[in-house]
Amino acid sequence: MAYLVFARKYRPQQFDDVIGQAHITRSLANAVTTGRLAHAILFSGPRGTGKTTVARILAKCVNCHNGPTDKPCNQCPSCREITTSSAADVFEIDGASNNKVENVRELRETAKYKPSSSPYKIFIIDEVHMLSDAAFNALLKTLEEPPAHVLFFFATTEPNKIPVTILSRCQRYDFRRVAIDDITGHMAEICRQEQMQISQNALAVIAREADGSIRDGLSLLDQIVTCSSEKVSDEQVVEMLGVIDRQVLFDAADALFSGNAAALVGICDALYRQGRHLLRFYSELIVHFRNLLLIKMGGAEKSLTDVPEHEKKQMAKQVEHVSEPYLSQIVNTLFSDEWRIRQSVSPRHALEMTFFKLLQIRPAMSMDTLIEKLDQLRQEMGGPLPVNAVPEAASEPRNPEPAALPENQDPGPGPVPEPETAPEPEPEPDGPETASTPEDPADGYETNEALWAALKNHIAAQKPSLAACMGESQLREINGRHLVIDIKSSGSNIELLDRKKNITRMEQLCSEFLEKNVRVELNISREANHSEKRKQEAKTLREEALNHPLVDAAVKTFNGKIVDIKILPAGGSTQ
Ligand SMILES: [Zn+2]
Question: What is the CA(13)–ligand 1 centre distance, in A?
Answer without folding.
Answer: 11
